[in-house]
Write a structure and sequence with these properties.
Elements (H helix, E strand, L loop, with lengths): L8 E6 L5 E5 L5 E4 L6 E2 L10 E6 L2 E6 L7 E2 L2 E2 L3 E3 L5 E3 L7 E6 H11 L1 H6 L5 H16 L3 H16 L3 E8 L2 E9 L14 H10 L10 H5 L14 E8 L1 E3 L6 E3 L5 E9 L8 H47 L10 E8 L6 E10 L2 E9 L3 H18 L6 H16 L5 E9 L3 E7 L5 E3 L5 E3 L18 E4 L5 E5 L1 H4 L10 H10 L6 H16 L8 E8 L4
Parallel strand pairs: 3-4
Antiparallel strand pairs: 1-2, 1-11, 3-5, 5-6, 6-9, 7-8, 7-10, 10-11, 12-13, 12-17, 14-17, 15-16, 18-27, 19-20, 20-21, 21-22, 22-25, 23-24, 23-26, 26-27
Length: 555
């Protein structure tokens, strides 16, 4: 084992929130894990206390899995024991949405950029020392900086050194326009964007009309003659050099890069001087093109990071929504006596606003509610939580059901302005089998008679929150001993398989008829199994919620 001499190794650490930091791999061995004594602490309960470590032997760096629970992956492949690392390798820890590390060697990053210049330096006169220094500075900035703007500024500074231009601008596409992201002078100072004297629409036109992938011709005075609205006054009269920033797509390794078609550009590197036009050597042109590719790669990496942050943000919101939704499910259901219940809720990958509740309001009276709030995500889950609170506040044994529904409807319309609504089925069952119920636009619950007959309880009014002064009728139904009631959300009937078919109500009815003697717990298990078998593992766009109620008066 060696001390950390030679190329400096570092890790670009991307935490579960998408935040980045650069960590130097020192001292060695460099330990990674959940315990506080680790060189790099993973604040993720799924990580092992001693998950992995980095070693250096015979000049090479290795990562070693310390018999962790979920393992170590390098570039998407799980390793066994240890594996040699190369600059740019991606390290993960066997679980989704956890830490990701990018292993880098400073000299390797510099060499990567210099290798891209090899063809031009072999075919042209030796590059001046100042140009090489500028390029090395870009590579070091790429390796060490976490700021996209800092790296792009270094690219512009290097381009100014290569061309001896006086001002440099990096312009990025924003829809059908170009916006200035970086403006620098030859001293490396930031300058006002107004220093760009050529109209951006002329640059944009030249960028779109170019014939070559990595180069373009731009003469602002000549091209302004084609635009009668433009005056040549104030236009740059010296030399102008433009290099397109061509969109790239990086692969699994940082060395894998795919250039996109000529029309697929992210911007342009623009350099100008008051002096007369200078003739760039072939080598200098290739240096500029390499810098432009580097800038494009940086922008692509920034785009991917933004995507990752947005994905993580959405996942965090969905996690919160799932937690809210699960908290709305009743923790305990009656499983003995004359009234029994069983429920199941399978959240979708988007998470909706399903909510159900079963509670005793008098010794011989049980109330139950199943609701489905429109929309997805945290807003729907929060509204379902408010809906639960509204029912708890408004519902009691002495209140008429139609009055309670009207109060909750008013509560929703006042807070959402009709933009959100909820389908709701509400029922109250007495020990004598007498059931009062109201269906506000909800899927028709199904009553399974002991004889095997199936009855529907259709919608009797519009959903709650849709119309401010809506009226809600209340119906009555008599249950016989042994009857069961299935109340469900449309996520059940609209569950789809790989062929695009829906589960539909008819399959629910067939399921109930095939299980006339089953208890409520057995029925809910049969239902969830049937839906999972039908969907064939396909991710669903809506939550699947169902409640089975069983009426069995004591003898």
């Amino acid at each position: 084992m060696e001390a950390a001499i030679g190329p400096q190794a570092a890790l670009l650490v991307i935490d579960p929130s998408g935040n980045r930091q650069r960590v130097v791999v020192s001292p060695l061995p460099f330990t990674i894990g959940r315990q506080a004594e680790s060189s790099l602490v993973l604040r993720d309960n799924r990580a092992s206390r001693n998950h992995a470590r980095l070693l250096r032997e015979n000049g090479d760096y290795y990562i070693e899995d310390l018999n962790s629970r979920h393992g170590v992956e390098v570039n998407g492949t799980r390793i066994a024991g240890r594996r040699k690392l190369s600059s740019g390798d991606r390290i993960e820890f066997g679980v989704e949405d956890s830490y990701r590390l990018i292993f880098t060697l400073e000299e390797a990053e510099i060499q990567r950029l210099m290798d891209q210049l090899s063809s031009s330096t072999r075919s042209a006169a030796p590059t001046s020392l100042s140009k090489l220094r500028a390029l090395v500075e870009v590579a070091r900035t790429v390796q060490s900086s976490l700021s996209t703007l800092t790296v792009l500024s270094a690219v512009v500074d290097a381009a100014l050194t290569v061309t001896s231009a006086e001002r440099g601008f990096l312009l990025l596409r924003n829809g059908d326009d170009l916006e200035i992201a970086v403006a620098r002078d030859q001293r490396g100072a930031q300058i006002p964007a107004s220093e760009l004297r050529a109209p951006t629409r002329l640059i944009h036109k030249a960028l779109n009309n170019r014939r070559e992938l990595l180069s373009m011709n731009f003469d602002p005075r000549r091209q302004s003659q084609d635009d009668p609205e433009l005056s040549t006054a104030g236009l740059p009269s010296g030399s102008v050099v433009c290099v397109p920033l061509v969109k790239v797509r990086t692969g699994g390794s940082e060395e894998t890069m795919v250039m996109q078609p000529a029309g697929d550009t992210v911007g342009v590197l623009y350099l100008e001087s008051k002096a007369a036009a200078a003739s760039l050597s072939a080598g200098d042109r290739e240096l500029l093109q390499t810098l432009a590719i580097e800038a494009s790669t940086i922008l692509e990496n920034a785009r991917l990071l933004d995507q990752e942050r947005e994905r993580h943000k959405i996942e965090e919101e969905l996690k919160i929504a799932r937690e809210i939704q699960q908290s709305l499910m009743p923790r305990q259901l009656p499983h003995a006596g004359w009234f029994r219940a069983a429920a199941a809720s399978i959240p979708s990958h988007q998470v909706g606003g399903d909510y159900c509740d079963v509670r005793r309001i008098e010794p011989d009276l049980w109330a139950f509610v199943v609701a489905d709030v429109s929309g997805k995500g945290v807003s729907s889950a929060l509204l379902a939580s408010l809906l639960q609170g509204a029912f708890l506040a408004a519902g009691h044994a002495d209140m008429r059901m139609d009055t309670m529904m009207a109060h909750v409807n008013q509560f929703l319309t006042e807070r959402t302005g009709g933009e959100k609504y909820a389908t709701v089925f509400c029922g109250v069952l007495g020990k004598d089998g007498h059931m009062r119920w109201s269906n506000a636009g909800h899927c028709p619950p199904l009553i399974l008679r002991k004889s095997g007959e199936v009855l529907k309880l259709p919608a009797t009014s519009v959903p709650l929150g849709m119309i401010e002064d809506a009226e809600f009728s209340v119906e009555t139904t008599r249950l016989d001993p042994g009857d069961r009631i299935l109340v469900y959300t449309d996520g059940v009937t609209e569950a789809s398989n790989r062929s695009g078919q829906y589960f539909e109500t008819k399959r629910l009815e067939q399921l109930l008829r095939a299980n006339p003697g089953r208890s409520c717990a057995e029925l809910i298990t049969a239902l969830t199994n049937a839906v999972e078998t039908f969907t064939e593992g396909m991710p669903q766009s809506d939550d699947i919620t169902a409640v089975v109620l069983e009426y069995e008066p004591e003898a």
